[in-house]
Design goal:
globular, 636 residues, Heat Shock Protein 90, 21% strand, Ribosomal Protein S8, Chain: A, domain 1, alpha+beta, Ribosomal Protein S5, domain 2, 8-stranded mixed β-sheet
Length: 636
Amino acid sequence: MSDIIKLLPDSVANQIAAGEVVQRPASAVKELLENSIDAGATDIKLIIKDAGKTLIQVIDNGEGMSATDARMSFERHATSKISSAEDLFNLNTKGFRGEALASIAAIAQVEMKTKKEDEDLATIIKIEGSKVKSQDVCSAPKGTSFSVKNLFFNIPARRNFLKSDKVETKNIIDEFLRVALAHPSIKLTLNHNGSIVYNLDSASLKKRIDSIFGSKNKDKFFPIEEDTEIVSFSGFIGKPDFAKKRRGEQFFFVNDRFIKSSYLNHAVTSAFEGLLPHDSFPSYFIYLDIDPQTIDINIHPTKTEIKFEDERSIYAILRSAIKHSLGQYNIAPSLDFSIDRNIDEELMKPSENYKQPTIEVDPDFNPFKTDNDYSPQKNYSGGGGAFSGNYKKPSTKGWDSLYSGLENLSPEDSFIVSPTNEIETSDVTWDKQDEQASLNNDKDFEEKEKGNIHFQLNKKYIISNIRSGMLMIDQNRAHERILFDQFYNGISQRNFASQQLLFPLEIEMNEGQWAILQQILPDLEEIGFSFQGYESGVVTINGIPSEFNESESKDMLDKVLHDLDFAETDVLEEKLNLLALSFAKTKAVKYGTTLKQNEMEEIVNKLFACSNANHSPSGKIISSIISLEELESRFK
Protein backbone atom coordinates (compact mmCIF):
# COMPACT_ATOMS: atom_id res chain seq x y z
CA MET A 1 0.00 0.00 0.00
CA SER A 2 1.43 3.36 -1.05
CA ASP A 3 1.88 6.26 1.34
CA ILE A 4 -0.92 8.85 1.28
CA ILE A 5 0.35 11.63 3.59
CA LYS A 6 2.12 14.49 1.80
CA LEU A 7 3.50 17.91 2.61
CA LEU A 8 1.36 20.69 1.25
CA PRO A 9 2.99 23.16 -1.14
CA ASP A 10 3.75 26.54 0.41
CA SER A 11 1.19 28.27 -1.82
CA VAL A 12 -1.61 25.99 -0.59
CA ALA A 13 -0.48 26.24 3.03
CA ASN A 14 -0.44 30.03 2.77
CA GLN A 15 -3.96 30.06 1.34
CA ILE A 16 -5.17 27.90 4.23
CA ALA A 17 -3.50 30.24 6.70
CA ALA A 18 -5.01 33.19 4.88
CA GLY A 19 -8.45 31.74 5.54
CA GLU A 20 -7.83 32.18 9.26
CA VAL A 21 -6.00 35.50 9.19
CA VAL A 22 -7.65 37.30 6.24
CA GLN A 23 -11.34 36.59 6.29
CA ARG A 24 -12.39 39.83 4.59
CA PRO A 25 -10.80 43.15 3.48
CA ALA A 26 -11.13 44.53 7.01
CA SER A 27 -8.83 41.74 8.25
CA ALA A 28 -6.07 42.86 5.91
CA VAL A 29 -6.60 46.48 6.97
CA LYS A 30 -6.22 45.53 10.63
CA GLU A 31 -2.96 43.62 10.06
CA LEU A 32 -1.40 46.37 7.95
CA LEU A 33 -2.35 49.17 10.37
CA GLU A 34 -0.91 47.20 13.29
CA ASN A 35 2.34 46.63 11.40
CA SER A 36 2.63 50.39 10.84
CA ILE A 37 2.09 51.05 14.55
CA ASP A 38 4.74 48.49 15.49
CA ALA A 39 7.08 50.26 13.10
CA GLY A 40 6.79 53.43 15.17
CA ALA A 41 4.74 55.44 12.65
CA THR A 42 3.26 58.78 13.72
CA ASP A 43 1.33 59.41 10.49
CA ILE A 44 -0.67 56.64 8.79
CA LYS A 45 -2.82 56.94 5.66
CA LEU A 46 -5.38 54.26 4.69
CA ILE A 47 -6.68 54.32 1.11
CA ILE A 48 -9.37 51.88 -0.05
CA LYS A 49 -11.35 51.41 -3.25
CA ASP A 50 -14.56 49.44 -3.71
CA ALA A 51 -14.70 48.49 -0.03
CA GLY A 52 -11.14 47.13 -0.21
CA LYS A 53 -11.89 44.60 -2.93
CA THR A 54 -9.99 46.55 -5.56
CA LEU A 55 -7.36 48.32 -3.45
CA ILE A 56 -6.13 48.53 0.13
CA GLN A 57 -3.14 50.80 0.61
CA VAL A 58 -1.46 51.74 3.90
CA ILE A 59 1.24 54.43 3.88
CA ASP A 60 3.24 55.21 7.03
CA ASN A 61 6.33 57.13 8.13
CA GLY A 62 7.68 54.35 10.33
CA GLU A 63 11.18 52.88 10.52
CA GLY A 64 10.99 51.04 7.21
CA MET A 65 12.91 47.87 6.32
CA SER A 66 16.13 46.93 4.63
CA ALA A 67 16.09 44.99 1.36
CA THR A 68 16.73 41.69 3.17
CA ASP A 69 14.05 42.32 5.81
CA ALA A 70 11.57 43.35 3.13
CA ARG A 71 11.97 40.00 1.38
CA MET A 72 11.94 37.98 4.61
CA SER A 73 8.75 39.64 5.84
CA PHE A 74 6.71 37.64 3.31
CA GLU A 75 7.94 34.28 4.57
CA ARG A 76 5.68 32.33 6.92
CA HIS A 77 6.46 32.64 10.63
CA ALA A 78 9.07 35.32 9.97
CA THR A 79 8.90 38.03 12.64
CA SER A 80 11.06 40.47 14.54
CA LYS A 81 8.74 40.57 17.57
CA ILE A 82 9.58 37.28 19.32
CA SER A 83 12.45 34.80 19.38
CA SER A 84 11.34 32.21 21.97
CA ALA A 85 8.15 30.75 23.45
CA GLU A 86 8.60 32.79 26.62
CA ASP A 87 8.20 35.98 24.58
CA LEU A 88 4.56 35.04 23.91
CA PHE A 89 3.76 35.93 27.53
CA ASN A 90 5.53 39.27 27.48
CA LEU A 91 4.11 40.90 24.35
CA ASN A 92 3.95 44.64 23.91
CA THR A 93 3.47 44.70 20.14
CA LYS A 94 0.52 44.08 17.81
CA GLY A 95 1.74 41.45 15.37
CA PHE A 96 3.99 38.61 16.42
CA ARG A 97 3.09 35.41 14.58
CA GLY A 98 4.61 36.36 11.25
CA GLU A 99 1.66 35.13 9.18
CA ALA A 100 -0.06 38.35 8.14
CA LEU A 101 2.03 39.44 5.15
CA ALA A 102 2.53 35.89 3.92
CA SER A 103 -1.22 35.24 4.10
CA ILE A 104 -2.11 38.48 2.33
CA ALA A 105 0.45 37.88 -0.41
CA ALA A 106 -1.02 34.41 -1.00
CA ILE A 107 -4.46 35.73 -2.00
CA ALA A 108 -3.76 39.12 -3.58
CA GLN A 109 -1.47 41.14 -5.81
CA VAL A 110 0.89 42.92 -3.41
CA GLU A 111 3.31 45.76 -3.93
CA MET A 112 5.50 47.06 -1.10
CA LYS A 113 7.84 50.05 -1.03
CA THR A 114 9.97 50.51 2.07
CA LYS A 115 12.96 52.62 3.06
CA LYS A 116 14.97 53.13 6.22
CA GLU A 117 16.02 56.62 7.20
CA ASP A 118 19.76 55.98 6.78
CA GLU A 119 19.43 54.47 3.29
CA ASP A 120 19.51 56.33 -0.01
CA LEU A 121 17.12 54.16 -2.01
CA ALA A 122 13.96 52.25 -1.18
CA THR A 123 13.13 48.62 -1.92
CA ILE A 124 10.11 47.69 -4.04
CA ILE A 125 8.74 44.13 -4.11
CA LYS A 126 5.83 42.76 -6.19
CA ILE A 127 4.20 39.45 -5.28
CA GLU A 128 1.16 37.63 -6.75
CA GLY A 129 -0.26 34.53 -5.11
CA SER A 130 2.87 33.92 -2.98
CA LYS A 131 5.09 34.19 -6.06
CA VAL A 132 7.70 36.96 -6.10
CA LYS A 133 7.42 38.72 -9.43
CA SER A 134 10.16 41.29 -8.93
CA GLN A 135 12.39 43.01 -6.38
CA ASP A 136 14.12 46.26 -7.25
CA VAL A 137 15.16 49.66 -5.89
CA CYS A 138 13.28 52.91 -6.26
CA SER A 139 12.96 56.39 -4.80
CA ALA A 140 10.58 56.76 -1.87
CA PRO A 141 10.34 58.65 1.43
CA LYS A 142 11.15 57.06 4.78
CA GLY A 143 8.61 54.47 5.87
CA THR A 144 6.53 51.82 4.13
CA SER A 145 3.81 51.84 1.49
CA PHE A 146 1.89 48.56 1.25
CA SER A 147 -0.65 48.07 -1.58
CA VAL A 148 -3.05 45.10 -1.73
CA LYS A 149 -4.85 44.83 -5.09
CA ASN A 150 -7.65 42.47 -6.15
CA LEU A 151 -8.07 40.63 -2.88
CA PHE A 152 -8.97 36.92 -3.34
CA PHE A 153 -8.26 37.17 -7.07
CA ASN A 154 -7.08 33.54 -7.11
CA ILE A 155 -9.86 32.26 -4.82
CA PRO A 156 -13.13 33.15 -6.59
CA ALA A 157 -15.24 31.19 -4.12
CA ARG A 158 -13.94 33.24 -1.20
CA ARG A 159 -14.51 36.49 -3.10
CA ASN A 160 -18.10 35.50 -3.87
CA PHE A 161 -18.77 35.05 -0.16
CA LEU A 162 -17.88 38.67 0.60
CA LYS A 163 -20.79 40.87 1.67
CA SER A 164 -22.00 43.99 -0.08
CA ASP A 165 -19.70 46.99 -0.39
CA LYS A 166 -21.71 48.74 2.31
CA VAL A 167 -21.11 45.99 4.84
CA GLU A 168 -17.43 45.53 3.96
CA THR A 169 -16.85 49.31 4.18
CA LYS A 170 -18.48 49.38 7.59
CA ASN A 171 -16.15 46.60 8.78
CA ILE A 172 -13.11 48.51 7.51
CA ILE A 173 -14.26 51.68 9.27
CA ASP A 174 -14.73 49.71 12.49
CA GLU A 175 -11.16 48.41 12.36
CA PHE A 176 -9.85 51.88 11.52
CA LEU A 177 -11.68 53.47 14.46
CA ARG A 178 -10.46 50.82 16.89
CA VAL A 179 -6.88 51.60 15.96
CA ALA A 180 -7.59 55.34 16.12
CA LEU A 181 -9.05 55.07 19.63
CA ALA A 182 -6.22 52.86 20.85
CA HIS A 183 -3.56 55.32 19.63
CA PRO A 184 -4.85 58.92 19.81
CA SER A 185 -1.30 60.27 19.48
CA ILE A 186 -1.00 58.93 15.90
CA LYS A 187 -2.34 60.96 12.99
CA LEU A 188 -4.69 58.82 10.90
CA THR A 189 -6.44 59.41 7.57
CA LEU A 190 -9.05 57.25 5.82
CA ASN A 191 -9.77 57.77 2.13
CA HIS A 192 -12.51 55.75 0.40
CA ASN A 193 -13.02 55.98 -3.37
CA GLY A 194 -11.29 59.33 -3.50
CA SER A 195 -13.24 60.90 -0.61
CA ILE A 196 -11.78 61.58 2.82
CA VAL A 197 -13.91 59.86 5.46
CA TYR A 198 -11.72 60.59 8.50
CA ASN A 199 -8.83 62.98 8.98
CA LEU A 200 -7.74 62.58 12.60
CA ASP A 201 -4.90 64.70 13.93
CA SER A 202 -2.74 63.71 16.87
CA ALA A 203 -4.67 64.65 20.03
CA SER A 204 -5.60 63.62 23.54
CA LEU A 205 -7.98 60.73 24.07
CA LYS A 206 -10.92 63.02 24.85
CA LYS A 207 -10.36 65.07 21.70
CA ARG A 208 -9.96 61.91 19.62
CA ILE A 209 -13.32 60.63 20.91
CA ASP A 210 -14.92 64.00 20.11
CA SER A 211 -13.45 64.07 16.60
CA ILE A 212 -14.85 60.61 15.86
CA PHE A 213 -18.23 60.64 17.59
CA GLY A 214 -19.07 64.35 17.47
CA SER A 215 -17.83 67.53 19.09
CA LYS A 216 -20.88 67.81 21.36
CA ASN A 217 -19.81 64.95 23.61
CA LYS A 218 -18.03 67.04 26.25
CA ASP A 219 -20.97 66.87 28.66
CA LYS A 220 -21.92 63.29 27.87
CA PHE A 221 -18.97 61.45 29.41
CA PHE A 222 -17.34 61.25 32.79
CA PRO A 223 -13.81 59.91 33.38
CA ILE A 224 -12.91 56.68 35.10
CA GLU A 225 -9.52 56.02 36.67
CA GLU A 226 -8.39 53.29 39.04
CA ASP A 227 -4.90 51.99 39.78
CA THR A 228 -4.37 48.66 41.56
CA GLU A 229 -1.64 46.04 41.75
CA ILE A 230 -3.64 43.75 39.46
CA VAL A 231 -4.84 46.15 36.78
CA SER A 232 -5.19 49.86 36.04
CA PHE A 233 -8.29 51.37 34.45
CA SER A 234 -8.71 54.66 32.60
CA GLY A 235 -11.03 56.13 30.01
CA PHE A 236 -14.47 57.64 29.70
CA ILE A 237 -18.01 56.38 30.28
CA GLY A 238 -21.25 57.86 28.97
CA LYS A 239 -23.77 59.30 31.40
CA PRO A 240 -27.06 57.41 31.81
CA ASP A 241 -29.02 60.30 30.24
CA PHE A 242 -27.19 59.72 26.95
CA ALA A 243 -27.46 55.93 26.79
CA LYS A 244 -27.89 54.40 23.36
CA LYS A 245 -30.51 52.01 22.04
CA ARG A 246 -27.80 49.84 20.56
CA ARG A 247 -24.29 48.72 21.46
CA GLY A 248 -22.49 51.07 19.09
CA GLU A 249 -20.00 52.94 21.25
CA GLN A 250 -18.60 50.27 23.56
CA PHE A 251 -14.84 49.72 23.47
CA PHE A 252 -12.43 47.77 25.63
CA PHE A 253 -8.66 48.08 25.13
CA VAL A 254 -6.07 45.94 26.88
CA ASN A 255 -2.52 47.30 26.59
CA ASP A 256 -3.69 49.42 23.62
CA ARG A 257 -5.22 46.41 21.88
CA PHE A 258 -8.96 46.30 21.13
CA ILE A 259 -10.72 43.28 22.62
CA LYS A 260 -14.22 41.88 22.91
CA SER A 261 -15.34 40.64 26.30
CA SER A 262 -18.95 39.93 27.26
CA TYR A 263 -17.73 39.25 30.80
CA LEU A 264 -16.27 42.73 31.28
CA ASN A 265 -19.26 44.26 29.51
CA HIS A 266 -21.48 42.66 32.15
CA ALA A 267 -19.38 44.36 34.83
CA VAL A 268 -20.13 47.73 33.23
CA THR A 269 -23.87 47.17 32.85
CA SER A 270 -24.19 45.82 36.39
CA ALA A 271 -22.54 49.01 37.70
CA PHE A 272 -25.36 50.97 36.01
CA GLU A 273 -28.04 48.83 37.65
CA GLY A 274 -31.10 50.95 38.37
CA LEU A 275 -29.84 53.89 36.30
CA LEU A 276 -30.67 52.69 32.77
CA PRO A 277 -33.83 51.40 31.06
CA HIS A 278 -33.74 47.73 30.17
CA ASP A 279 -33.41 48.48 26.44
CA SER A 280 -30.59 51.06 26.70
CA PHE A 281 -26.84 50.56 26.73
CA PRO A 282 -24.11 52.83 28.12
CA SER A 283 -21.28 54.11 25.95
CA TYR A 284 -17.75 53.53 27.23
CA PHE A 285 -14.12 53.74 26.20
CA ILE A 286 -12.23 51.75 28.85
CA TYR A 287 -8.48 51.12 28.75
CA LEU A 288 -6.88 48.36 30.81
CA ASP A 289 -3.20 48.40 31.59
CA ILE A 290 -2.11 45.00 32.84
CA ASP A 291 1.04 42.91 33.12
CA PRO A 292 1.44 40.99 29.81
CA GLN A 293 2.50 37.91 31.74
CA THR A 294 -1.00 37.64 33.29
CA ILE A 295 -2.86 37.50 29.97
CA ASP A 296 -2.85 35.31 26.87
CA ILE A 297 -3.70 37.11 23.63
CA ASN A 298 -2.88 34.19 21.34
CA ILE A 299 -6.13 32.27 21.81
CA HIS A 300 -7.82 33.58 18.64
CA PRO A 301 -6.48 34.23 15.11
CA THR A 302 -7.85 37.79 15.07
CA LYS A 303 -6.41 38.48 18.54
CA THR A 304 -9.62 40.19 19.69
CA GLU A 305 -10.12 37.81 22.60
CA ILE A 306 -7.92 37.61 25.67
CA LYS A 307 -7.62 35.12 28.48
CA PHE A 308 -7.09 36.76 31.89
CA GLU A 309 -5.28 35.01 34.70
CA ASP A 310 -7.50 36.57 37.41
CA GLU A 311 -10.74 37.37 35.63
CA ARG A 312 -12.93 37.63 38.74
CA SER A 313 -10.77 40.25 40.40
CA ILE A 314 -10.69 42.38 37.25
CA TYR A 315 -14.48 42.16 37.06
CA ALA A 316 -14.90 43.30 40.66
CA ILE A 317 -12.37 46.13 40.35
CA LEU A 318 -13.95 47.45 37.14
CA ARG A 319 -17.45 47.38 38.59
CA SER A 320 -16.33 49.16 41.75
CA ALA A 321 -14.36 51.78 39.81
CA ILE A 322 -17.41 52.67 37.70
CA LYS A 323 -19.66 52.88 40.74
CA HIS A 324 -17.11 55.12 42.43
CA SER A 325 -16.99 57.44 39.41
CA LEU A 326 -20.78 57.53 39.21
CA GLY A 327 -20.94 58.76 42.78
CA GLN A 328 -17.90 61.02 42.52
CA TYR A 329 -19.40 62.99 39.64
CA ASN A 330 -22.89 63.13 41.19
CA ILE A 331 -24.38 60.82 38.59
CA ALA A 332 -25.56 58.28 41.16
CA PRO A 333 -26.39 58.89 44.84
CA SER A 334 -23.56 58.11 47.23
CA LEU A 335 -22.88 58.33 50.93
CA ASP A 336 -20.28 60.82 52.07
CA PHE A 337 -18.41 59.43 55.08
CA SER A 338 -15.98 62.33 55.21
CA ILE A 339 -18.41 64.85 56.77
CA ASP A 340 -17.00 66.55 59.87
CA ARG A 341 -19.64 66.17 62.56
CA ASN A 342 -17.97 68.83 64.72
CA ILE A 343 -19.14 71.61 62.44
CA ASP A 344 -22.81 70.54 62.55
CA GLU A 345 -24.95 73.08 64.37
CA GLU A 346 -26.50 71.84 67.61
CA LEU A 347 -30.17 72.65 67.27
CA MET A 348 -31.33 71.65 70.80
CA LYS A 349 -29.67 70.87 74.09
CA PRO A 350 -30.21 67.36 75.45
CA SER A 351 -31.77 68.73 78.68
CA GLU A 352 -34.52 70.58 76.84
CA ASN A 353 -37.95 69.00 76.34
CA TYR A 354 -39.89 69.11 73.11
CA LYS A 355 -42.87 71.51 73.20
CA GLN A 356 -45.76 70.97 70.82
CA PRO A 357 -46.55 74.15 68.86
CA THR A 358 -50.03 75.65 69.17
CA ILE A 359 -52.11 77.14 66.39
CA GLU A 360 -54.88 79.66 66.95
CA VAL A 361 -57.65 79.82 64.35
CA ASP A 362 -60.41 82.41 64.07
CA PRO A 363 -63.55 80.40 63.29
CA ASP A 364 -65.44 83.50 62.19
CA PHE A 365 -62.88 84.51 59.57
CA ASN A 366 -64.43 84.94 56.13
CA PRO A 367 -62.01 85.85 53.33
CA PHE A 368 -64.93 86.79 51.05
CA LYS A 369 -66.61 89.19 53.46
CA THR A 370 -67.28 92.68 52.00
CA ASP A 371 -69.01 95.82 53.11
CA ASN A 372 -72.23 94.73 51.35
CA ASP A 373 -72.73 91.23 52.69
CA TYR A 374 -74.39 88.66 50.52
CA SER A 375 -78.11 88.06 51.12
CA PRO A 376 -79.92 84.96 49.89
CA GLN A 377 -83.19 86.88 49.79
CA LYS A 378 -84.01 88.69 46.59
CA ASN A 379 -85.84 92.03 46.44
CA TYR A 380 -87.07 92.64 42.97
CA SER A 381 -87.82 96.31 42.42
CA GLY A 382 -89.09 97.08 38.99
CA GLY A 383 -87.24 95.02 36.43
CA GLY A 384 -83.98 94.88 38.36
CA GLY A 385 -82.48 91.91 40.09
CA ALA A 386 -80.59 93.59 42.91
CA PHE A 387 -79.95 91.80 46.20
CA SER A 388 -80.65 93.54 49.50
CA GLY A 389 -80.38 92.75 53.18
CA ASN A 390 -77.49 91.50 55.30
CA TYR A 391 -76.46 87.90 55.67
CA LYS A 392 -74.31 86.70 58.57
CA LYS A 393 -72.57 83.32 58.51
CA PRO A 394 -73.63 81.16 61.49
CA SER A 395 -70.99 80.67 64.14
CA THR A 396 -69.26 77.28 64.21
CA LYS A 397 -68.33 77.48 67.85
CA GLY A 398 -69.18 74.36 69.83
CA TRP A 399 -69.44 72.10 66.77
CA ASP A 400 -67.98 69.20 68.74
CA SER A 401 -71.03 69.16 71.02
CA LEU A 402 -73.06 67.69 68.16
CA TYR A 403 -71.34 64.34 68.73
CA SER A 404 -71.79 64.23 72.50
CA GLY A 405 -73.40 61.00 73.69
CA LEU A 406 -72.65 59.01 70.54
CA GLU A 407 -69.85 57.12 72.26
CA ASN A 408 -72.42 55.38 74.48
CA LEU A 409 -74.49 54.01 71.56
CA SER A 410 -74.64 50.28 70.89
CA PRO A 411 -73.59 48.87 67.51
CA GLU A 412 -77.25 48.46 66.55
CA ASP A 413 -78.00 52.10 67.39
CA SER A 414 -75.03 53.30 65.35
CA PHE A 415 -77.02 52.79 62.14
CA ILE A 416 -79.70 55.29 63.16
CA VAL A 417 -79.56 58.12 60.70
CA SER A 418 -82.69 60.13 61.49
CA PRO A 419 -84.70 61.02 64.61
CA THR A 420 -87.63 58.96 63.36
CA ASN A 421 -85.46 55.88 62.69
CA GLU A 422 -86.82 55.78 59.16
CA ILE A 423 -85.08 55.99 55.81
CA GLU A 424 -86.60 57.87 52.93
CA THR A 425 -86.97 55.51 49.95
CA SER A 426 -89.23 57.55 47.73
CA ASP A 427 -86.35 58.76 45.53
CA VAL A 428 -84.34 55.52 45.31
CA THR A 429 -85.67 52.11 44.32
CA TRP A 430 -83.76 48.83 44.25
CA ASP A 431 -85.17 46.20 42.01
CA LYS A 432 -82.85 43.28 41.19
CA GLN A 433 -84.98 42.28 38.23
CA ASP A 434 -84.66 45.75 36.72
CA GLU A 435 -80.87 45.67 37.31
CA GLN A 436 -80.58 42.29 35.62
CA ALA A 437 -82.60 43.52 32.66
CA SER A 438 -80.35 46.56 32.35
CA LEU A 439 -77.20 44.46 32.47
CA ASN A 440 -78.54 42.10 29.83
CA ASN A 441 -78.78 45.05 27.47
CA ASP A 442 -75.21 46.11 28.16
CA LYS A 443 -72.72 45.06 25.45
CA ASP A 444 -69.86 44.68 27.89
CA PHE A 445 -71.92 42.26 29.94
CA GLU A 446 -72.74 40.27 26.81
CA GLU A 447 -69.01 39.99 26.05
CA LYS A 448 -68.29 38.80 29.58
CA GLU A 449 -71.09 36.27 29.36
CA LYS A 450 -69.58 34.93 26.14
CA GLY A 451 -66.15 34.64 27.82
CA ASN A 452 -64.40 37.04 25.38
CA ILE A 453 -62.51 38.89 28.07
CA HIS A 454 -58.73 39.20 28.16
CA PHE A 455 -56.31 39.37 31.04
CA GLN A 456 -52.76 40.69 31.25
CA LEU A 457 -50.11 38.60 33.00
CA ASN A 458 -46.95 40.23 34.38
CA LYS A 459 -47.48 43.16 31.97
CA LYS A 460 -46.06 40.95 29.26
CA TYR A 461 -48.64 38.40 28.14
CA ILE A 462 -52.27 38.68 27.04
CA ILE A 463 -54.35 35.70 28.18
CA SER A 464 -57.60 34.77 26.49
CA ASN A 465 -59.80 31.71 26.90
CA ILE A 466 -60.65 29.64 23.83
CA ARG A 467 -62.63 26.45 23.37
CA SER A 468 -59.59 24.21 23.45
CA GLY A 469 -58.01 25.86 26.51
CA MET A 470 -56.07 29.04 27.21
CA LEU A 471 -54.32 31.26 24.66
CA MET A 472 -51.21 33.22 25.74
CA ILE A 473 -49.96 36.04 23.48
CA ASP A 474 -46.70 37.96 23.79
CA GLN A 475 -47.91 41.58 23.63
CA ASN A 476 -44.67 43.03 22.26
CA ARG A 477 -44.19 40.46 19.50
CA ALA A 478 -47.87 40.56 18.56
CA HIS A 479 -47.80 44.33 18.21
CA GLU A 480 -44.57 44.12 16.20
CA ARG A 481 -46.26 41.76 13.74
CA ILE A 482 -49.28 44.08 13.41
CA LEU A 483 -47.15 47.19 12.87
CA PHE A 484 -44.78 45.37 10.52
CA ASP A 485 -47.63 44.46 8.17
CA GLN A 486 -49.05 47.98 8.33
CA PHE A 487 -45.68 49.64 7.73
CA TYR A 488 -44.67 47.24 4.98
CA ASN A 489 -47.86 47.89 3.04
CA GLY A 490 -47.44 51.64 3.55
CA ILE A 491 -43.76 51.60 2.49
CA SER A 492 -44.27 49.41 -0.56
CA GLN A 493 -47.15 51.62 -1.72
CA ARG A 494 -45.31 54.82 -0.71
CA ASN A 495 -48.38 55.68 1.34
CA PHE A 496 -46.69 57.82 4.01
CA ALA A 497 -47.30 61.43 4.97
CA SER A 498 -44.62 63.77 6.27
CA GLN A 499 -44.99 66.36 9.00
CA GLN A 500 -42.74 69.40 8.78
CA LEU A 501 -41.05 70.44 12.01
CA LEU A 502 -41.33 73.99 13.28
CA PHE A 503 -37.93 73.57 14.90
CA PRO A 504 -35.54 71.27 12.96
CA LEU A 505 -34.40 68.13 14.71
CA GLU A 506 -30.65 67.69 15.16
CA ILE A 507 -29.08 64.24 15.54
CA GLU A 508 -25.38 63.68 16.16
CA MET A 509 -23.58 61.30 13.81
CA ASN A 510 -20.01 60.55 12.97
CA GLU A 511 -18.61 60.44 9.45
CA GLY A 512 -19.10 56.70 9.16
CA GLN A 513 -22.77 56.83 10.18
CA TRP A 514 -23.43 59.70 7.79
CA ALA A 515 -21.82 57.73 4.96
CA ILE A 516 -24.19 54.83 5.67
CA LEU A 517 -27.19 57.12 5.97
CA GLN A 518 -26.48 58.67 2.58
CA GLN A 519 -26.95 55.27 0.96
CA ILE A 520 -30.53 54.99 2.24
CA LEU A 521 -31.59 58.64 2.05
CA PRO A 522 -33.94 58.10 -0.93
CA ASP A 523 -35.76 55.31 0.91
CA LEU A 524 -36.10 57.37 4.10
CA GLU A 525 -37.36 60.40 2.19
CA GLU A 526 -39.99 58.24 0.52
CA ILE A 527 -41.49 57.37 3.90
CA GLY A 528 -41.67 60.90 5.27
CA PHE A 529 -38.20 62.01 6.35
CA SER A 530 -36.76 65.30 5.10
CA PHE A 531 -33.04 65.91 5.62
CA GLN A 532 -31.39 69.30 5.36
CA GLY A 533 -27.78 68.13 5.45
CA TYR A 534 -24.78 67.15 7.53
CA GLU A 535 -22.38 69.60 9.15
CA SER A 536 -19.93 69.38 12.06
CA GLY A 537 -21.13 65.97 13.18
CA VAL A 538 -24.85 66.90 13.20
CA VAL A 539 -27.61 65.79 10.80
CA THR A 540 -30.49 68.29 10.52
CA ILE A 541 -33.99 66.91 9.90
CA ASN A 542 -36.83 69.16 8.74
CA GLY A 543 -39.57 66.56 8.43
CA ILE A 544 -40.48 63.21 9.97
CA PRO A 545 -43.19 60.59 9.25
CA SER A 546 -46.57 61.70 10.58
CA GLU A 547 -46.95 58.48 12.60
CA PHE A 548 -44.00 59.35 14.85
CA ASN A 549 -43.02 62.09 17.27
CA GLU A 550 -39.53 63.56 17.53
CA SER A 551 -38.22 61.21 20.24
CA GLU A 552 -39.54 58.17 18.40
CA SER A 553 -37.98 59.43 15.19
CA LYS A 554 -34.56 59.53 16.86
CA ASP A 555 -34.94 55.96 18.10
CA MET A 556 -36.27 54.90 14.73
CA LEU A 557 -33.32 56.35 12.83
CA ASP A 558 -30.94 54.70 15.26
CA LYS A 559 -32.54 51.32 14.65
CA VAL A 560 -32.67 51.88 10.90
CA LEU A 561 -28.97 52.67 10.79
CA HIS A 562 -28.16 49.64 12.91
CA ASP A 563 -30.33 47.23 10.90
CA LEU A 564 -29.48 48.51 7.44
CA ASP A 565 -25.83 48.73 8.42
CA PHE A 566 -25.56 44.96 8.12
CA ALA A 567 -27.88 44.46 5.16
CA GLU A 568 -26.23 42.00 2.80
CA THR A 569 -28.11 42.95 -0.32
CA ASP A 570 -29.27 46.04 -2.15
CA VAL A 571 -32.46 44.35 -3.37
CA LEU A 572 -35.51 46.59 -2.83
CA GLU A 573 -37.51 43.84 -1.13
CA GLU A 574 -34.82 43.34 1.51
CA LYS A 575 -34.59 47.07 2.22
CA LEU A 576 -38.35 47.31 2.68
CA ASN A 577 -38.28 44.43 5.14
CA LEU A 578 -35.52 46.02 7.20
CA LEU A 579 -37.19 49.44 7.22
CA ALA A 580 -40.56 48.00 8.26
CA LEU A 581 -38.90 45.90 10.96
CA SER A 582 -37.05 48.91 12.37
CA PHE A 583 -40.25 50.95 12.46
CA ALA A 584 -42.24 48.14 14.09
CA LYS A 585 -39.66 47.64 16.85
CA THR A 586 -39.68 51.36 17.61
CA LYS A 587 -43.45 51.75 17.81
CA ALA A 588 -44.45 48.40 19.33
CA VAL A 589 -45.84 48.33 22.86
CA LYS A 590 -43.06 47.52 25.32
CA TYR A 591 -42.96 44.95 28.09
CA GLY A 592 -44.10 46.43 31.38
CA THR A 593 -46.87 48.49 29.77
CA THR A 594 -50.31 48.10 31.31
CA LEU A 595 -52.98 47.51 28.67
CA LYS A 596 -56.66 48.32 28.95
CA GLN A 597 -59.34 45.83 27.98
CA ASN A 598 -60.07 47.52 24.65
CA GLU A 599 -56.33 47.71 23.84
CA MET A 600 -55.87 43.99 24.44
CA GLU A 601 -58.98 43.29 22.38
CA GLU A 602 -57.60 45.37 19.50
CA ILE A 603 -54.21 43.61 19.56
CA VAL A 604 -55.85 40.16 19.54
CA ASN A 605 -58.27 41.00 16.74
CA LYS A 606 -55.64 42.65 14.52
CA LEU A 607 -53.09 39.90 15.17
CA PHE A 608 -55.24 37.17 13.67
CA ALA A 609 -55.89 39.35 10.64
CA CYS A 610 -52.14 39.48 9.87
CA SER A 611 -50.37 37.50 7.19
CA ASN A 612 -48.50 35.44 9.80
CA ALA A 613 -50.06 35.45 13.26
CA ASN A 614 -47.78 32.76 14.64
CA HIS A 615 -44.36 34.41 14.32
CA SER A 616 -43.01 37.91 14.78
CA PRO A 617 -41.09 39.64 11.94
CA SER A 618 -37.90 38.41 13.63
CA GLY A 619 -39.14 34.81 13.51
CA LYS A 620 -40.00 34.47 17.21
CA ILE A 621 -43.13 32.68 18.44
CA ILE A 622 -45.99 35.06 19.25
CA SER A 623 -48.62 32.86 20.89
CA SER A 624 -48.95 29.55 22.70
CA ILE A 625 -52.00 27.45 23.60
CA ILE A 626 -52.31 25.53 26.86
CA SER A 627 -54.93 22.86 26.30
CA LEU A 628 -57.68 21.94 28.75
CA GLU A 629 -56.15 18.50 29.17
CA GLU A 630 -52.82 20.06 30.20
CA LEU A 631 -54.56 22.36 32.66
CA GLU A 632 -56.61 19.54 34.16
CA SER A 633 -53.52 17.35 34.52
CA ARG A 634 -52.00 19.93 36.86
CA PHE A 635 -54.84 19.39 39.37
CA LYS A 636 -54.66 15.63 39.61
